[in-house]
Amino acid sequence: MLKGIRPELNGDILQALSNMGHGDYLVVSDTNFPSDSVARHSLLGHLLTMENTPAPKAIEAILSVFPLDTPLQPSVGRMEVIGKPDEIPDVQQEVQAVVDRVENKAAPMYPIERMAFYDIARKAYCVIATGEMRFYGCFILTKGVIPANEVAR
């Protein structure tokens, strides 16, 4: 255990998040997503896991150390419901509330059609599979930057 680091963030996840650069994609997936096979195509090349953690709690832990991309563009994508692109399932509403709270403002997620989501995910830096069992608990986060004056010393 480390002070100030949430227990959901194991060493492998912290290393991957730290190694990511501005504009890199992070996939946070539910238990139904083909996480392992998609992760093999990612830049990291293998799957990371938060097995007993639901998506909202996983994303809250990730966002405790991970800067989202600039406020000028949406930085969190959500997988669209097949045939119902405007429907936002409960799990996505819960993640939206987490993002808004962490960002201290409304930061709407952008929808990604299912097959396009898979395509983007295969180009991501890494994939973190969560224990989220609800459908459509899949998200793509874009890494931002931390200004020099905000770096802890």
UniProtKB/TrEMBL annotation:
Keywords: Isomerase
Superkingdom per UniProt: Bacteria
GO molecular function, one term: D-ribose pyranase activity
UniProt-listed InterPro entries: RbsD-like_sf, RbsD/FucU_mutarotase, RbsD_FucU
Pfam families to which the protein is assigned, alphabetical: RbsD_FucU
Catalysed reactions, as listed in the record: beta-D-ribopyranose = beta-D-ribofuranose; alpha-L-fucose = beta-L-fucose
Gene Ontology terms describing biological process: fucose metabolic process
Presence of keyword Ligase: no
Protein name: L-fucose mutarotase
Naturally occurring in which organism (per UniProt): Rhizobium lusitanum
